[in-house]
Write a structure and sequence with these properties.
There is one protein chain. With 412 residues, this protein is mostly helical. The chain has a two-stranded antiparallel sheet. Strands 3-4 form a two-stranded antiparallel sheet. The longest helix is centred in the middle third of the chain and has 36 residues. The chain is globular. The two termini are 15 Å apart.
């Protein structure tokens, strides 16, 4: 079971490493003004992430791959635990850097740059305490549904039933806890953002006018040119409760928040793209709700010893593997696009972070170019995942007695 899932993990890991490298190139190529402005702050957590977390992660994954039949089992197990811990430490340091972009702390402005004066304030940024658990639990949810979907495929085919029932049990435990946890943390994070980035949350709800109590828009057709909705279906009081746990609370609208931003930062448009944010939020929540229902139903069927016999449920689970990826993508779209027009909230606009020698054409060329490259890599990744997932566990008996045969057995 370890070798089967480990093979799929390594394919995924290889793609993940490459994406981070290109992003760092972007800081110097296309966003040098951004790098100049906050490199003193952004560089510290990213350096720690690379030198500490990623170094541990890459070292121990190498030992884990080539340590089969060479290391004691407990030492070999320790290696993959270190990979898992270091991966989440990487997430923590990256999110510490990202959180400064949303909520700048521990800095002073000097000579047109943000310079760090309090490292402790940076790593204890309150934004991190909402963002990090939400991100890690989203990762656990992704892994759980990945394992559930592939296990369901083989259980439906009656292949390796014992192995995939055991995998399913682990995935259900992680899935139920994680999907409920990520939903709860998302709620608390949303309430925190109502206080710290109210424009983002108002845009995600297409909430134009200040109201108390405020209704929740189930559906809306947005007219951003005229700062209103041409059509909406509202549930009274729900937005007030979501924001403040009070059905009668007043929630500020986009128009009032725009006026406040102009008074604080000067003339300009401080409203992010409302329609994409409105639907991104609903897609994220819808995918999360569906995953919660599937995980709870799967847990109930497993508890009643009917999981492997419920063929209709097994047939739909493989098609649910994309759900957490959709939720992750729309969630990050909401997080980053909702901050616009700021690249560093309240300090630097996105338009000010672009390299001075780079025009919009160059930005489009690199964006489209990298998108096409990653599209090809994604297709390759999906092909390999599908191939090895469908193949299922194979006899990993090492016929060769050579060290190379032992070390490379995971890849056969």
């Amino acid at each position: 079971m370890t070798k089967f899932w480990g093979k799929l993990f390594l394919i995924n890991f290889a793609l993940g490493v490459v994406t981070g490298l290109v992003q760092e190139f972007q800081f110097g190529m296309n966003w040098s003004e951004y790098s100049r402005f906050m490199g003193d702050i952004f560089g510290a957590p990213l350096a720690i992430e690379a030198l500490l977390a990623f170094f541990i992660e890459s070292t121990f994954i190498g030992i884990w791959v080539f340590g089969w039949d060479r290391l004691p089992k407990k030492v070999h197990l320790f290696c993959i635990w270190m990979v898992a811990i270091a991966s989440n430490l990487s997430a923590l340091w990256i999110l510490i850097a990202n959180s400064f972009m949303h909520e700048p702390v521990g800095y002073v402005l000097r000579n047109g740059r943000a310079e760090m004066v309090d490292f402790f304030a940076l790593i204890t940024n309150k934004h991190v305490f909402y963002q990090f658990p939400h991100t890690v639990l989203a990762g656990f949810t992704t892994a759980a549904f990945f394992v559930l979907g592939i296990s369901a495929y083989h259980l439906y085919k009656k292949q390796h039933v014992d192995l995939f029932l055991r995998s399913t049990k682990i995935a259900l435990i992680f899935g139920i806890i994680s999907v409920l946890g990520v939903s709860g943390m998302g709620h608390f994070q949303g309430q925190y953002l109502v206080e710290t980035q109210p424009m983002k949350m108002a845009a995600a709800e297409a909430h134009w006018e200040t109201e108390g109590p405020a209704g929740f828009n189930v559906f809306a057709i947005v007219d951003q040119e005229n700062n209103t909705n041409t059509f909406e279906i509202k549930v009274p009081g729900v937005l007030s409760f979501m924001s403040y746990n009070n059905f009668s609370a007043e929630v500020k609208g986009i128009n009032e928040l725009q006026e406040e931003a102009v008074a604080q930062y000067g003339e300009g448009n401080y409203i992010p793209p409302v329609t994409p944010l409105f639907w991104a939020f609903r897609i994220m929540v819808g995918a999360g709700t569906l995953m919660a229902a599937l995980a709870l139903l799967g847990g109930f069927l497993y508890w009643r010893n009917k999981y492997a016999e419920t063929s209709w449920f097994l047939r739909i689970l493989p098609w649910m593997i994309p759900l957490p990826y959709i939720a992750n993508l729309t969630g990050w779209f909401l997080t980053e696009t909702g901050r616009q027009p700021w690249i560093v909230f309240g300090l630097q606009k996105t338009s000010e972070g672009v390299s001075t020698a780079v025009n919009s054409t160059s930005l489009w060329i690199t964006l489209i170019g990298f998108t096409l490259i990653y599209a090809v890599l994604a297709i390759v990744c999906a092909y390999l995942m599908f191939k090895f997932a469908k193949q299922g566990p194979v006899d990993e008996t090492i016929e060769s007695s050579t060290d190379v045969g032992k070390g490379a057995s995971l890849w056969t």
